[in-house]
Amino acid sequence: MANHDPIAAPVSALTVRNLTIDLPKGMERKHAVSDISFDLKTGQILCIIGESGSGKSVTANAVMGLLPSAISISGGSIRCGDVDLTDASPEVLRDLRGRVVSMIFQDPLSALNPLMTVGDQIDEVMFAHGEGTREDRRARSLALLTEVGLPDPELMYHQYPFRLSGGQRQRVMIAMALALEPAILIADEPTTALDVTTQAQILDLIRDIQRRKGMSVMFITHDFGVVAEIADSVIVMEQGVIVEQGSAEQVLRNAQHPYTKRLIAAVPHLSDNDRTHEEVAGSAPVIEVDDLRKEYRSGSIFFGKERVVKAVQGASFALQPGRTLGIVGESGSGKSSLGRLLVKLMDSDGGRILFDGQDIAPMKEAQFRSIRPKIQMIFQDPFASLNPRSTIGRILTAGPVAHGMAPAKASQQARALLEHVGLDGGAFDRYPHEFSGGQRQRIGIARALMFKPKLLVADEAVSALDVSIQAQILELLNDIQRETGVAMIFITHDLRVASQICDEILVMQRGVIVEHGPPSQIFRNPQSDYTRELVAAIPGERIAA
Length: 545
Prior knowledge:
By secondary structure, the protein is α/β, with parallel strands linked by helices. Among the domains are: 11-89 and 218-267, Rossmann fold (3-Layer(aba) Sandwich); 287-536, Rossmann fold, CATH 3.40.50.300. It is built from 21 helices and 20 strands. β9 (233-238) and β10 form a beta hairpin. α4 packs across α5 (134-147). The two termini are 16 Å apart.
């Protein structure tokens, strides 16, 4: 938990009273937020926590004056100094944005302009407010890039967002938010999609800047692990209502509301006990990987600027039926590349992949087609991987029917699987956009199971979900594995999740497996310096498991 110097009688940088925001007619509830009141104290970090749909991001957007036109404030006030933001003119709001209140968005890639360099985008924030000359703005931008810990600021200034890693893009967003030295910083899920070490760095950076500049920070998250690391005070929201608020220590150690207790209980923790299985005598591995390699090449060899990235270097392992192998590491470690090689979404450059005793690595697509149903993948983003124009029934049955299953049998199996993953029969005829993120992930799992696979590859399958939904999906995968005996490769950047569901863990760094063993050894007695760094970066391990 944040441990700031006490501020005598802290005053409020932001005061919200009886705020009510209406949703469009026909939604499942009338209000996005209903009659909420809270204070953001000067020089402190306030965490707003809740699941998707709780109203936390709507509250942040209301403060910024960025609510979509379909959503309107119907009551209450948001006061920043002498200004009531709820009825301020567009001109006043424009003047306040960036200069008094700034925001860091969840997805920096969609928030940054892909056609502008990093430097131009930071400069633009200052230019819009008439700050300084061109030379002054450039000098300030370089200073900001240095402050947020980006390497070689001069080079970074001229880069485009797509050339940066997720953590680097998030640092650019923070630099833009700090350009006019605002009094209030709003951070909306800024670490959700980041690996543990990058997440720890971003949390440290926000906390350090906040302390040095005395800023007030509103930090929105769904993870109590993050709250434990950074918060001074906490607001817990459920269905648009504040159900609990208090100091971070008070809420974490002595939660009163059942919903708060449930969110805290859902935070995954490193497990001291490895999973136990009834061993099947003489069971052959479902998959054996031997010296697997993959390189990515970019640039031109003729101009001497060819860049070679060794994404996977000499990976070797075996996996038995009914067991789960976790692959963990930072972004860029090669774990997703390894997963894509195993399901042959791309070809390897060397090595063997023995599936049921057959080497599938050199197989062409036509040859592999009959095997593909037995190796299925659950993708990170279920919305992007589900055809928005097809019903759930068609999404689930299209593959099996193409492989020769009778349509009636496929429909019957799909309906049964939907019930199995916790969705009612009515889901069959609905479309992906009608479901929440957690429900879409259940549909993704049902689709993968339609073929009764021998191997499931789950690539960051729970990373974008609320902790409580995440816990449900992990339990579902566990139940399915126990019932079907399917082998699973679970790719994740969240070491806490890996310790919950995996029998063995591979730790990857720059394409190389640096450590391999059971979770208890990997996380409680790591042998590699890199693994020790990953474990040290896990948020919220101080919350009692």
